[in-house]
Every structure is written in C-alpha cells, then in structure tokens.
Amino acid sequence: MTYHGSCHCGQIAFEVEGEPGQVIECNCSHCVRKGFLLWFVPRASLTLSKPDSPMSTYQFNKHVIEHRFCPNCGCQPFGFGKDPSGAEMAAINVRCLENIDLNTLQRVPFDGRNM
Fold first, then answer.
1. How distant, in Å, are the alpha carbons of 8, 20, 22 from that of 108?
2. In sequence order, what are the beta bridge partners of 23?
3. Helix (H) and strand (E) counts for the chain?
C-alpha cells in the first residue's frame, strides 16, 4: 500500500510503500519530546513528492540518524539512517501520514534512553 505524508505546512511531501503493522515508540529524549511513532522501511520505499523542498537535518547522541525536518513549520516527518547490517533505512513518523488510524498500529516500546 502507498501512504502519503507531509510536514504540517506541506513543503515536505512524500510517499512511502509498505504496511506499518508495528511502530517503534522510543523513550529517548528526542522521541519522547516529539511524540514520535516510527515505522522503519528500506530507504527505497520512501519517495519525495517535492524533491527540491528545503529540509533541515538534526543529529544528536551517536549521530547515526539524520532527522529531517521542515525549516518552515518545524515538523519532522522522517529520518534517514542504516540498519545493523548497513542497509539504508528511513524512519517514518507515522503521525505525519494521511488516512492512517494510529489505534490500529501495534506500538513496540524501545529503550533508547539507556542505549
């Protein structure tokens, strides 16, 4: 299934292919403050609808995830990183997807605070 997503103002828009049965609910200082529910997909599953849109990047802690956000509205719809095998991944903030029922997703706790 293809999902459409965006930042709040719409400057960053994207499509992601797949089915988010499970999402990660991380308790690190960043994810907790922003309320992220993250769905990890192969990087190739995410397509930018507006590839020339301005995006800012934030990294913290071990600097392994490039958290992308809109410089206009501040919304962070996704981030980029690599899985343990080195494969390129995208971490989709499912709260930025259209027409998704968050209550149907299985939330998997992740202890990012103590990593």
1. 25, 12, 7
2. 107
3. 1, 10
pLDDT at position 34, please?
93
Q: Which domains does the chain have, with CATH numbers?
A: 2-110 (2.170.150.70)
d(CA 28, CA 11): 27
Q: Position 22: which residue type?
A: Q
Q: Are 67 and 58 in contact (CB under 8 A)?
A: yes
pLDDT of residue 53: 87
Cβ proximity of 86 and 43 under 8 Å: no
φ/ψ region of 56 (left if φ > 0, alpha if ψ in -120 to 50, else beta) reads beta
Q: Token pair 């903030």 is at which residue?
A: 93
Q: Is the pLDDT of residue 42 over 90?
A: yes
Reported pTM: 0.92
pLDDT in tens, 46-74: 999 988 889 999 988 777 889 999 999 99
Q: Supply 109's token pair.
A: 């706790």
